[in-house]
């Protein structure tokens, strides 16, 4: 069945290791977002899957076929490039037709005028023309078919690039930051269009972005990459609520997750600066307790903080504060009504449900924790 | 702004002057050409005699046709070799690429007159003297064209080529269907350079051509001068006008397209 499986991909450019043992599966019909900071190797991985770049090690299967040694054209993938990479000298119609013409017409049949006279060519050309129109129409490209890329806006070029990718019904789509050149409003609109195209086509899609909001909203599965290694592959919900490492927890989510130094005593009771937080873990000396801003609320008991300033978001408030014992920055997302109670400089307490706290060991790996029934803060 | 236009007009006039003088002289009787006073406009028109003499004495159309065949042949082969070579040097990685490019650079340093003698010996040895092949073959590989195209193709975005490969194009299709159409300004500039220089070339045709059969326009003017015109400058100027006319006409007709090509072939994705 169609889908992408990569196993153990490694790649280095000279002395720099760009990809380390990357393995990933995109099931048929699945939409996987690959996120990571700039320069972590996302584009390189895409190029390797497409066959534009060769890997030093590892294997690639697309649609059930081993394609590691095949040239790009035979891999049956379509790629949308960050720069669109439309043919500047061809019209929109011709741009979208290229992948079909290259596959279905012989070299002679492709000749400008003469080719149309050959037996069979005319019927095939007509079929191609109608498929081009069918791919272009849902993207709103019908009125633009005779323009050249230069005469289109960024968003329109983007859609032409999408149409060129879907027209040939490949086994897999690769999209490399296709929205990064669009403005915010257009990005949100095109995001939805891409998801709809993906649904309609039902094709395995690997979507690269460094915008975590894009990844969380669009994908069935999110793969987080850093420094050339995949750190976690999970559903958007799990990536957000149940990150496997501190790196993933800090990369995903905005504003950033709060981090406080914590310790577990000999019995495994976890405390932050002497304050028991109602969690038990294995006895560790140094831990990091991480809390999403929305897990915090104003309370009678809890983490002591000094309020610094407030940001009004419309449906809520962001409280920027400092943890009183060690000065660590803490951000809490509060109800709008909290505004009266919170003055800059005020000493406050922030409570949280223990099950919403995440614990990480000194190596950044997640540490198992369970709520300590006898001791609940706030 | 106006100052700039004035300067440009002056420079233009300076460049145009010899050509205008040639055209004017071709319309005058000899007695008027050698008059002490300077005047562009002829008092007596001798156009009919001058041009008539040229057309009657030498096969002008035949020379022009030779010019078209030779320049066209040279240009076609130059593009055929230089475009793929420039593409390979700019965009493909293969062992020996640096060496190959070094050889091209070295080739640029060799003046065309240096290999003339060995080429003549070779042509004569192969029995090719006084033929179109002898006129065309030595110029089919232009290192200048390879260099020019390599520099120009280097600016093409790599993603465009990658997209073409994913769309199913082989390297050969990429060269002719993607790279060359997007290098229109470079190709145009080179075509003008090549056609003009070979149309006007006298050195090589003089070496390999004997007689009228394969004479190029420049050689034709020379023949006319030595055999027919003597010191009839009016007729000689008429011959020169006729031989350069196709270039001037071609440029005037194509000018719009050249400028358009340069203006619209921006490579913004
Ligand atoms: N051809 C190359 N030669 C040498 N180094 C390269 C090459 N291509 C990429 N790199 C390096 O590999 C690393 C990963 O690059 P890559 O383009 O995959 O990053 P990315 O995750 O796509 O980043 P971005 O989000 O900025 O697009 C970078 O450090 C880059 O400098
Ligand atoms: Mg990238």
Description:
The complex is a heterodimer of chains A (378) and B (269). Chain A has 378 residues and is an alpha+beta fold. Helices cover 23% and strands 33% of the residues of chain A. Chain A has eight helices and 20 strands. In chain A, the strands form four sheets. Chain A has a six-stranded mixed beta sheet with strand order 6-7-8-3-9-10, with helices on both faces. A six-stranded antiparallel beta sheet of chain A has the order 19-14-11-12-13-20. Chain A has a four-stranded antiparallel beta sheet with strand order 2-1-4-5, covered by helices on one side. In chain A, a hairpin with a 2-residue loop joins strand 4 (57-62) and strand 5. In chain A, helix 2 (92-104) runs parallel beside helix 4 (154-166). Chain B is an all-alpha fold. Chain B has a single domain, classed as MetI-like fold (Orthogonal Bundle), CATH 1.10.3720.10. Chain B contains 14 helices and no strands. In chain B, helix 3 (47-57) crosses helix 14 (233-264), helix 4 (60-91) packs antiparallel against helix 11 (184-199) and helix 11 (184-199) packs antiparallel against helix 14. Chain A binds chain B through residues 47, 50-52, 71-73, 77-79, 81-89, 98-99, 102-103, 149-150, 157, 164, and chain B through 157, 159-160, 162-170, 173, 178, 181-182, 184, 264-269. Bound molecules: adenosine-5'-triphosphate (ATP) and magnesium ion. Adenosine-5'-triphosphate binds next to helix 1 of chain A.
């Amino acid at each position: 069945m169609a889908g992408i499986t990569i196993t153990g991909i490694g790649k280095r450019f000279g002395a720099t290791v760009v990809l380390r043992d990357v393995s990933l599966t995109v099931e048929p019909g699945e939409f996987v977002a690959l996120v990571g900071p700039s320069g972590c190797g996302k584009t390189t991985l895409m190029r390797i899957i497409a066959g534009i770049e060769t890997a030093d090690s590892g294997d690639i299967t697309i649609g059930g076929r081993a394609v590691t040694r095949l040239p790009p054209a035979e891999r049956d993938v379509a790629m949308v490039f960050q720069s669109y990479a439309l043919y500047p000298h061809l019209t929109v119609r011709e741009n979208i037709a290229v992948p079909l013409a290259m596959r279905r017409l012989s070299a002679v049949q492709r000749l400008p005028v003469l080719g149309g006279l050959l037996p069979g060519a005319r019927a095939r050309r007509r079929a191609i023309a109608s498929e081009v129109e069918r791919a272009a129409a849902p993207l709103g490209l019908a009125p633009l078919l005779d323009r050249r890329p230069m005469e289109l806006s960024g968003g329109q070029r983007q859609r032409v690039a999408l149409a060129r990718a879907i027209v040939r019904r490949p086994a897999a789509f690769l999209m490399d930051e296709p929205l990064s050149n669009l403005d915010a409003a257009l990005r949100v609109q095109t995001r939805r269009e891409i998801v709809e195209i993906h649904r309609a086509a039902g094709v395995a899609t690997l979507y690269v972005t460094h915008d975590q909001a894009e990844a969380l909203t669009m994908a069935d599965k999110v793969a987080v990459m850093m420094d050339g290694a995949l750190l976690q592959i999970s559903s958007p919900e799990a990536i957000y609520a149940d990150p496997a490492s501190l790196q993933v927890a800090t990369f995903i989510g905005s504003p950033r997750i709060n981090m406080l130094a914590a310790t577990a005593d000999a019995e495994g009771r976890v405390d932050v600066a002497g304050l028991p937080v109602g969690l038990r873990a294995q006895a560790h000396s140094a831990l990091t307790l991480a809390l999403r801003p929305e897990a915090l609320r104003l309370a009678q008991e809890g983490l002591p903080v000094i309020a610094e300033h407030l940001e009004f978001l419309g449906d809520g408030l962001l409280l920027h504060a400092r943890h009183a014992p060690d000065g660590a920055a803490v951000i809490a997302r509060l109800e709008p009504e909290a505004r009266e109670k919170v003055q800059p400089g005020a000493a406050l307490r922030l409570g949280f449900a223990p099950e919403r706290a995440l614990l990480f060991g000194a190596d950044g790996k997640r540490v198992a924790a369970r709520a300590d029934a006898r001791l609940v803060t706030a | 702004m106006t100052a700039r236009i004035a300067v440009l007009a002056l420079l233009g006039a300076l460049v145009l002057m010899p050509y205008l003088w040639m055209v004017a002289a071709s319309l005058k009787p000899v007695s008027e050409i050698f008059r002490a006073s300077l005047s562009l406009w002829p008092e007596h028109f001798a156009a009919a005699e001058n041009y008539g003499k040229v057309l009657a004495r030498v096969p002008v159309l035949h020379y022009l046709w030779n010019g078209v065949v030779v320049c066209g042949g040279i240009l076609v082969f130059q593009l055929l070799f230089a475009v793929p070579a420039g593409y390979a040097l700019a965009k493909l990685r293969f062992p020996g690429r640096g060496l190959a490019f070094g050889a091209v650079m070295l080739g640029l340093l060799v003046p065309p007159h240096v290999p003339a003698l060995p080429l003549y010996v070779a042509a004569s040895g192969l029995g090719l003297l006084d033929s179109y092949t002898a006129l065309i073959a030595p110029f089919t590989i232009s290192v200048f064209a390879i260099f020019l195209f390599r520099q120009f193709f280097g600016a093409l975005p790599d993603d465009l080529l990658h997209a073409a490969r994913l769309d199913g194009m082989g390297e050969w299709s990429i060269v002719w269907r993607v790279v060359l159409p997007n290098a229109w300004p470079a190709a145009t500039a080179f075509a003008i350079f090549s056609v003009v220089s070979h149309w006007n070339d006298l050195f090589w045709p003089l070496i390999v051509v004997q007689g009228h059969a394969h004479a190029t326009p420049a050689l034709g003017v020379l023949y006319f001068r030595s055999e027919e015109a003597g010191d009839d400058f009016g007729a000689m100027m008429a011959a020169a006008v006729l031989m350069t006319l196709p270039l001037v006409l071609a440029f005037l007709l194509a000018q719009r397209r050249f400028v358009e090509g340069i203006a619209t072939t921006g490579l913004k994705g």
